[in-house]
Amino acid sequence: MISVKKDYNNLPVGLNTKGCQNQIKKTLIEKDKHNFSSYYYRDATYEVLKNQIYHRKCGYCETDTTAGAALQVDHYRPKKRIHDDRSHTGYYWLTYEWSNLILVCSACNSKKSNQFPLELTGKRVNN
Ligand SMILES: [Zn+2]
Fold first, then answer.
1. Is 7 contained in some domain?
2. Ligand 1 mean position to 71 CA, how many Å?
3. H or E element, residue 25
4. Exposure class string for 80-104: b at 16+ Cβ within 10 A, else e
């Protein structure tokens, strides 16, 4: 996994719009029932991830896609229900969160899907 630095004071255009702020508000109200829109993290946000943050490499396997392989925006913490824990509703509130967006190759994205394994709940810090 590539270690990257993102500027959290300078969000990409797509995430820094009134429309995106409205989507975040809707997400917090509708929770896991929210109809997610990739509109806000594709195009301008995708280009920033590809050209400035991950430099055309998959954020997980580091495959160089300069030759033309497709890259996709993945949610590090899945926005929808998690495969490993059906009681977990997913991290819907992180759908439009800059820190949660990773650029990945299609192989890694389909392999990861909505998996996000966690330690046993009794071992987690709650707060
Ligand atoms: Zn990959």
1. no
2. 9
3. helix 18-30
4. bebeeeeebebbbbbbbbbebbbbb
The rounded Å distance from CA 86 to ligand 1 centre is 26
Cα–ligand 1 centroid distance for 3 (angstroms): 14
Q: pLDDT tens for the chain, 127 residues: list them.
A: 889 999 999 999 999 999 999 999 999 999 999 999 999 999 999 999 999 999 999 999 999 888 777 899 999 999 998 887 888 889 999 999 999 999 999 999 999 888 887 776 655 554 4
Q: Within a domain: residue 106?
A: yes
Count how many domains the chain has. Answer: 1
85 is a domain residue: yes
Provide the 10 A C-beta neighbour count for residue 32. Answer: 15
Asked whether residue 127 is assigned to any structural domain, the reply reads: no
* Domain coverage including residue 44: 13-116
- C-alpha 19 – ligand 1 centre gap (Å): 30
